[in-house]
Amino acid sequence: MNDFDDIRPLNNDEVKEAIESLIANEDFERAFRYIYPDVNWKEFSATMRSFKTKEDFKAKLAYEAVMTVAKKTTFSLTISGRSRLPKDKKPCTFISNHRDIVLDASFLNVMLYDVGYGMTQVAIGNNLLIRPWIETLVRLNNSFIVKRGVSVRQMLEVSKTLSAYIHHAIKETKESVWIAQREGRAKDSDDRTQGSVLKMLSIGGDKGNLLLNLMDLNIVPVSISYEFDPCDYLKAKEFQMKRDNPDFVKSQRDDLLSMETGILSDKGRVHFTLASPINGSLARLDPGMEKNELVGAIAAIIDREIYKHYRFYPCNYVAYDLLHGTRRFQAHYGPKDKQRFEDYLRGQLDKIVLPDKDEAFLRKKLLEMYSNPLKNHLVTL
Length: 381
Hints:
Layout: H1 15-23, H2 26-35, H3 41-49, H4 54-73, E1 74-80, E2 93-96, H5 103-114, E3 121-125, H6 132-140, E4 143-146, H7 152-171, E5 177-180, H8 195-203, H9 210-215, E6 219-226, H10 232-244, H11 252-264, E7 268-274, H12 279-283, H13 291-308, H14 314-324, H15 335-350, H16 359-378
Parallel strand pairs: 1-7, 2-5, 2-6, 3-4, 3-5
Antiparallel strand pairs: 6-7
Helix pairs in contact: 1-3, 1-6, 4-5, 7-8, 10-16, 14-16
């Protein structure tokens, strides 16, 4: 395990020190009060000190915090496909589309916990660990670190270590893992599994074969469907800023705003669908294919499972018809649904402040975000 010390979750013998550092940190207290404004910090500190293991922390405090967020900011939080989970609770690598920086994995974990499957270890990019207390918190909550922004020379070594750790978690510690299908969120919701993610996952295996190494990870695709994405206007704004200035790069402040907005704002209905493990499909691929062709074929299998299992809301159908100037899906919404979404779009557009605000461009980007999952789903029919 020493090989993974800089990326792994905390060990249980490190929990006490981590908890003491958190409850003494003013920034952590301020962040926690966002969710629990009336918390008695002395009583809360005593509760924190009662947690002796990561499992205690996850099952009690982390679970309760995520469910509180769900109750405050979602109309419903649901999951389907539980019957597709391995009956023997065999560890899986859950690969999903990526909508919210923090909540995608958090929501999945509480729902897996509720059905008795157990929470996953979660991959999180170090670009989001803006403060030292955030790194302490996520590692206490059983997350492992994905190093972003390293040099080309360092990339291979970093990827090898990360991949080896994921294989270690699945095969040695017998814990499931969650990882997004791509680096960062798909800002336009046009979800595509990155070949680089699959190549990374394969290099830490011991089979000397990309296909067999990925099969060792027991990949289960997961479809995530948010009715409303609180960060949609921030994503649209970023599209215009990158269009107007190709050198634009988000700041840490931007990432922090996206995390806060995603956690605290309304999401409407949220649904997760677990697809079937893909090992059967992988076994039918020709292992003699050229590497990039093979990676593309595996990515297509994952994408198809994600597209097939999206859940759609009236806003998705309205967005598609508005974007394409059609009435193709009018049977799926009524005049009130359409007006509600139009009002929602106007409200989100009004939040965007830019010196040369291009309303038509921004509106188009918002419509693409809500219609792209439906566009991709149609390919699977």
